[in-house]
Amino acid sequence: MKNETLQTILKRRSIRSYRTDQVAREELETILEAGMYAPNAGDQRWNFTVIQNKKMLNRMESLAKETAKQLGGHLADLGNDPEFACLYGAPTLIVVSSSEENVGLDYDCSTAMENMLLAAESMDISSCWIYFILLSFFSREGEQLKKDLKIPGGYKPSTAAVFGYKAEEVEAAPRKEGLATWIL
C-alpha cells in the first residue's frame, strides 16, 4: 500500500487544458504555504507572485511569444503559431523569483514550485510547470513587467507554473526503464 504522499506524486500530471473558473484565494494560500516550506539554502530568499488578472496573463503570453520568435528553432515555431497559448487557458499563474545574489537560489525556487505542484494535486487543483512564460521577462518590456508584477528589486523570475481545474482527463505517459544506477 502506497502512502498518501506517494499517491499524490504518482497521480500528478501536467495539464494543458483548463476550465475558466478561478482557484479560490484560500486554496492558493495553502499552495503558497507548501512552497514556502520547501527545502532551501536557509535564507528563503525567494518571492512568490500570484497572477490572476486576465489582461496581465494575456500581456505576458504575448511578450513571451514575441521573444520566442527571435530565438529560432522550436521556440520560434511556438512564437509564430497563432494557436499556441503557453498558459493553456489556466486562470492562475505563479512566478517564483530568486535573489540575483546567488545563482544556486534557482534550485530553491524549483523545490518550492515542486511543493506547490504537489500540494495543488492533493487538493484536486491541476497544474503545469511553464518555462515558456519566463521569456516575457526577456522581452523589451521585461524590466517594466517585473515592476508591474511588484517583483522586488534584486530578484529575477526563476520558475513559473499555471494552476486551475482541468478541462479533460490526462493519462500518464509511460515511464522509461533503466534510469537508475545502483552502486552496491
TrEMBL record:
BP GO terms, sorted: 2,4,6-trinitrotoluene catabolic process
MF-aspect GO terms: oxidoreductase activity, acting on other nitrogenous compounds as donors, with NAD or NADP as acceptor
Gene3D superfamilies: NADH Oxidase
Keyword Ion transport: no
GO CC terms in record: cytosol
Residue intervals of the Nitroreductase domain: 9-165
SUPFAM superfamilies per the UniProt record, alphabetical: FMN-dependent nitroreductase-like
Protein keywords: NAD
Pfam family, one: Nitroreductase
Name of the protein described by the UniProt record: Nitroreductase
Annotated organism of origin: Eubacterium limosum
Taxonomy of the source species: Bacteria, Bacillati, Bacillota, Clostridia, Eubacteriales
